[in-house]
Amino acid sequence: MGPIRNKVSPPGSRTSPPRTRSGNKVSTSPRRTRSQKRQARPLSENPLDTKADLQEALISFLDPLAAHTSPGGARIRLGATATHYDEVAAQLEGFARPLWGLASLIAGGGEYDGTERWIRGLANGTDPDATGEFWGWSRAKDQRMVEMSPIGFSLAVAGDILWKDLKEEEKQNIQNWLMYINDKEMPNTNWLWFRVFANLGLAKVGANWDSERLKADLDHLDTFYLGEGWSRDGPEGVRQLDYYSGSFAIQYAQLVYSKLAADTDPVRSEDYRERARKFALDHVHYYDEEGRAIPFGRSTTYRMAMAAFWGAVAFADLDLPEPLSWGVVKGILFRNIRWWAKHPDIFTVDGTLTIGYAYPNMYFTENYNSPGSPYWGMKAFIPLALPETHPFWASPELPLPRTELPLIKPLSHPSHIVSHLGNHTFILSSGQHCHYPLKATQAKYGKFAYSSYFGFSVPTGAYMLDQHAPDSMLSLSEDGGEIWLTRRLAPEARIETIPSEDGKEEVPILTSKWYPWPDVCVETILVPPSKEHPNWHLRLHTIKSTGNRSFLTAEASFAIYGQEEKDGRTLPEFNGVLGRIQETGKALAVSPAGAVGVSDLSPSSSTRNGEVLNADANSNLIWNRTVIPFLHGEVKDGEETRYATAVFALPGNEFCEGEVPEGWRDGWDNVPGVWDALGKRAGWV
For the domain that residue 531 is a member of, what is the CATH number? Predict the structure, then answer.
């Protein structure tokens, strides 16, 4: 069959009995059986070294889904929490997202005993007569559109297994259901890629598809491109370059498309490959030596999908510029999955994924995160589609090439400065924001810094600082400290350079403005660590008020695990080994997880008091009990106030195994200062 442009209309109401794969009722029996079911080790016991290990790891994700699957295989219900879209779409999400992994597994020659469940589900879910199984027809901006993407991908790479043995009526139903997307309104974002893959999958199995719609969507998606490999997630005016611009959607989709459409769309495919080569040299900086990615932005409950770009590089057979060899690419992806394997609380007791990050956390998630949403992480398993002779599998795993990459890297498009100094990978950030009312949007885009080790915190409520939990933020309150404002928009953010303290090199800085009230402007300069002060970054704030407004300020460091031991009591006052230091002009917390703190470098008239706050439980992504060092100050009627803050961070052991990290005292005492060029740029000299 060739491409067509026809509107598929859903059948009218039916009174006949539900009819699916058996002809008159929902089919629940498999077409074929195997003599022995392959048992997968728990992820925590898997060494994750070889292709066979990764296959087994995927199976350990897929097996627990069987108990939650509907009789006809089309719906997977993993929990009772709701989303802004309907329950049927949520259960479709549970069915479709694991296909990112399953399709890759079988495309690469692997076998899975549960494959028949998904084949049955695909037929039943697209059959309007399948009562209790049919997914329903798409409407404008429908969640069903999102889940068409893994289905289209699966048909494209694994059609020999998932499509060829279907009955003609079943194939027609699948075609009708996927084609129904083509005349519907979609969000002007990465969602357009989902329609691309719906049509691409149909084309690959020889069904009807809409070639004109596919081309129009690709042409529009290309308008998101900014340069140097980066695309924003939306039209002009949207500065949102989180993981959707990379691993979750755009870069990932471009690479997959570049392989699947290399013969039919060679020019665009090569353009996408060149973008990925450039993007990789920036994106590598978002990962640390242990495999952690820096959590930033929305949807990070997709977990290992944060590293899926590197799997897509392998799938697309893309050689990257030095020093990003195949061994480096393999190492980034495998270490990331291993890091998640160390966190058993990402799973429920029956082995299904939870909504959250390092543990279940509903404060942190979006209103579009259903219990099936985290299975978008199965995108990371796409290298399973490759033969073992591929250089991704044949190359030995290598560490990050730190000696060949800069330790400080300014990234102009996302408005980030990345630092790898002080055994710590983090970004300084200003200027990004989500273009719609996202839950905890200030926390996900508006903080000054985001760390692969310390994570970040989100509000649990709107009353007092402990509920706001505003780590790495400057918070303002004009009601005595009940309600606090934190930064969301910083539209004038940009990266500049100034001479270093010794004048021998240029230092990147990130400048921005924030307007918490119409008559108040906060100008901020963020300065990355230096080799002389590797565990410190600087923040300079000039707060200008044109009215008669007085308010309190609270400026925080990173959050950190706040107990004496892994299962101990809340940190005490400093006891000579660990605890809290709360003094005029400084605050520090030392725990088995490391040490974080703030030191006030402001002019004497602006001296602030230090405090270590008990943040609300479950506010942080990494640890469920944290403390946050703060500096408290006050801005009085119409005054211009200048704050200079040095922020200290020294990682220890995330799992709080062993002693408090050595060397924190020397690092804490080695406080940087505000040198002349920096003070001049701030307008203070």
Answer: 2.70.98
Provide the pLDDT confidence category of residue 435 given band limits of 50, 70 and 90: confident
Distance set, CA 283 to CA 233, 242, 395 (Å): 16, 11, 21
In a domain, 7, yes or no: no
Residue 422 sits in the same domain as residue 388:
no
Task: Read off the tokens for 192.
Answer: 């357009």
CB 1 within 8 A of CB 207: yes
Round to whole Å and give the CA distance between 313 and 317.
Answer: 6
Radius of gyration of the chain (CA): 26
Q: Are residues 443 and 536 in the same domain?
A: yes
Instruction: Give per-residue pLDDT as tens, 290-325.
Output: 999 999 999 999 999 999 999 999 999 999 999 999
Residue pair 5/212 in contact (Cβ under 8 Å)? The answer is yes
pLDDT tens-digit readout, 387-400: 999 999 999 999 99
Residue 661's SS3 state is: coil
333 shares its domain with 473: no
Q: Which residue range is the domain that position 439 belongs to? A: 408-681
SS3 350: coil
655 C-beta neighbours (distance < 10 Å), count = 13
Angle at 142 between CA 137 and CA 144, to 5 degrees: 60
The span from the first CA to the last CA of the chain, in angstroms, equals 73
DSSP structural state of residue 347: B
Tokens read off for 216:
């129009």
Residue 583 located in a structural domain: yes
- Is the pLDDT at 38 greater than 70? The verdict is no
Spatial contact of 417 and 495, defined as CB atoms under 8 Å apart: yes
SS3 label, residue 670? coil
Q: Measure the CA–CA gap between 27 and 23, rounded to whole angstroms.
A: 8
- Does 484 lie in the same domain as 412? yes
CA distance 138 to 141: 8
According to DSSP H, which parts of 167-210 are helical?
A: 168-179, 192-204
Count of domains observed in the chain: 2
Spatial CA neighbour of 641 closest among 597, 598, 600, 582: 600
Tokens of 82: 């709701």
Angle at alpha carbon of residue 474, lines to 470 and 479, rounded to 5°: 85
CA distances from 63 to 48, 57, 178, 352, 384 (A): 18, 10, 27, 9, 17
Cβ atoms < 10 Å from Cβ of 42: 12
The b-or-e profile of 205-230 (16+ CB within 10 A means b, else e) is: bebbbbeebbeebbeebeebbeeebb
Q: Tokens 């109401």 — which residue?
A: 13
CATH number for 182: 1.50.10.20
Mean pLDDT of 390-413: 97
